[in-house]
Specification:
Layout lengths: L16 E2 L1 E7 L14 E7 L5 E9 L2 E11 L5 E4 L3 E10 L3 E10 L2 E10 L6 H13 L7 E3 L9 H8 L3 H6 L28 E5 L1
Parallel strand pairs: 5-11
Antiparallel strand pairs: 1-3, 2-9, 2-10, 3-4, 4-5, 5-6, 6-7, 7-8, 8-9
Length: 210
């Protein structure tokens, strides 16, 4: 386990792999509310050869998923710096790379700044003991408890309000159409999202690198 002075310089590879967003808290509440730019659903972290770290995540905007991939560069002070909705500097406050990671971030944009505390985990949820570590940093920054969101129960990848209308096919339309004879198929045609045009989704991607 690593403490507040931990730097990702030599051990960032231990953070590689899949992650889930557990909790977020911001001194600017709207940033972590629904469709806020910092309401980030973390997916993957990747250590890069130049001591940078790649983050793959998605947000929800206009009821649609938006994929993001950003690269954070380590600075001379040991902090990491990345461009996303402004300029961001962050450190790793505490972590057990096999279980959780708590990030301490400051955003700078248009002459203003705000703090963000983020708790990510390898599993969809964590113990109360780990959540208490998150609370420690939130309180240190003076972020009100009402500015905290718990995303353990959130629908992240495809919101139901987006998916359900896509699957609604009018019954009357189907009744009027003639049913053609099924084609003769061979091979493995197991059902899956990739084989169904109505379930196929395309999300715009963004990337950032300093």
């Amino acid at each position: 386990m690593w403490g507040p002075s931990f730097s990702l310089r030599d051990r960032d590879r231990m953070l590689e792999g899949e992650w889930h967003t557990i909790r977020l808290a911001s001194s600017k509440k709207e940033k972590v509310e629904e469709e806020g730019s910092m309401r980030v659903f973390m997916e993957h972290m990747k250590a890069l050869e130049d001591k940078s770290i790649g983050f793959k995540f998605h947000t929800i905007a206009n009821e649609e998923c938006v994929d993001h991939y950003v690269v954070a560069d380590e600075t001379e002070t040991g902090e990491y710096s990345v461009e996303y909705d402004g300029h961001n500097k962050f450190t790793l406050f505490d972590a057990d790379p096999g279980a959780y990671a708590i990030f301490d971030l400051t955003n700078f944009k248009d002459g203003k700044s705000f703090n963000l505390v983020a708790l990510y985990a390898r599993e969809p949820d964590v113990s109360q003991e780990i959540k208490n570590k998150f609370e420690e940093l939130r309180e240190k920054h003076g972020i009100p408890k009402e500015n905290m969101v718990d995303l353990t129960q959130a629908v992240g990848l495809i919101p139901e309000r987006v998916l359900v209308p896509t699957l609604q096919i009018p019954v009357a339309t189907l009744e009027k159409e003639e049913t053609p004879d099924p084609p003769v198929l061979s091979g493995d045609f197991s059902p899956g999202l990739q084989h169904h045009p109505f379930l196929s989704t395309h999300h715009p991607a963004t990337s950032s690198h300093i």
